[in-house]
Write a structure and sequence with these properties.
The protein is an alpha/beta fold. The chain contains ten helices and eleven strands. A hairpin with a 5-residue loop joins strand 9 and strand 10. Bound molecules: guanine.
Length: 285
């Protein structure tokens, strides 16, 4: 079997053009959807992600502002900036790029962002809403993964999903979203005994461990859908996922590539959340 590629770039392009049309309608109502991204320090990976976010915003017609502060910026200064954007009606989305420098408490920062502008879906109120299946901002990577699976017509209800990884950004929420879609979900992680015995039973396998080439072809059930969330940079400079792609594609039915899979969809979902936020703002104006 050779797997069909789930092309995140192509799906993103389609979604971005739909979003661009939605932005035109919102602007006709007198509102320009606008996102502020706040970065503290100069983490090269963060700078690269932010460039992608800016490019997507520009493509869709969403306003974009980068607030870039030095590594020495204090937690209180950051909380004040967030409060400024919480109060500023011109901005519908606020994203604080993670990771933050060690002297800044990530929890305090996330909790400072208004849940109404939390386009990352990281605020505990929005996490709680997601958990009980209420409408809210969904975290971008997990929401993009659900869209990618649905885009190829794979039924999620009743399937065995195995999520490898338990981060707050990806692992935990993607399992929850797939549970909300009526999958049977198992979480595995670095301390799981006999990991292969779980991954081998997965109809849908989500690899979000952050270790290059961690999942091999022999760990995958024939015909499985494989979603690779890993973004690992090798010494050669090449990007690679958590899954050995060349092996997995001979076993799986569908697979996401790295790059060009989950990454572009994550960014597109951020634009989606910003547009939804602006739409909500327009309704209450
Ligand atoms: N750093 C890596 N991924 C993310 C993300 O989805 N949101 C934010 N804010 N920071 C990140």
């Amino acid at each position: 079997m050779t797997a069909t590629i789930i092309d995140g770039k192509q799906l993103s392009a389609q979604k971005r053009s739909e979003l661009a049309q939605e932005v035109v309608r919102i602007r006709e109502g007198g509102v320009l959807p606008k996102l502020v991204v706040i970065l503290v320090g100069d983490n090269p990976a963060s700078l690269s992600y932010i460039r992608g976010k800016q490019k997507a915003a520009e493509e869709i017609g969403v306003g974009f502002k980068l607030e870039h502060f030095p590594e020495s910026f204090s937690e209180n200064e950051l909380l004040d900036i967030i409060e400024h954007y919480n109060q500023n009606d011109e901005y519908h989305g606020i994203l604080v790029q993670l990771p933050l420098p060690e002297h800044i408490n990530e929890t305090a920062v996330i909790e400072k962002i208004s849940p109404l502008k939390d386009v990352d879906g990281f605020h505990p109120i929005n996490v709680g809403r997601m958990m009980i299946g209420q409408e809210t901002f969904l975290p971008c990577t997990p929401a993009g993964i659900v869209e990618m699976i649905k885009s190829v017509g794979v039924e999620i209800a009743g399937k065995n999903v195995v999520v490898v990884g338990r981060s707050n950004i990806v692992g935990k929420p993607v399992g929850q979203l797939l549970l909300n879609e009526h999958a049977t979900v198992t979480y595995c992680h670095s301390k799981t005994d006999d990991l292969t015995s779980y991954t081998k039973g997965a109809d849908i396998l989500v690899a979000a461990v952050g270790r290059a080439n961690f999942i091999k072809g022999q760990d995958i059930k024939p015909g499985a859908v494989v979603i690779d969330v890993g973004v690992n940079r090798l010494d050669t400079g090449k990007l690679c996922g958590d899954v050995v792609f060349d092996e997995a594609k001979e076993v799986a039915s569908y697979i996401t590539p790295v790059p060009g899979g989950v990454g572009p969809m994550t960014i597109t979902m951020l634009a989606h959340n910003t547009v939804q936020s602006a739409k909500q703002f327009l309704l209450t104006k």
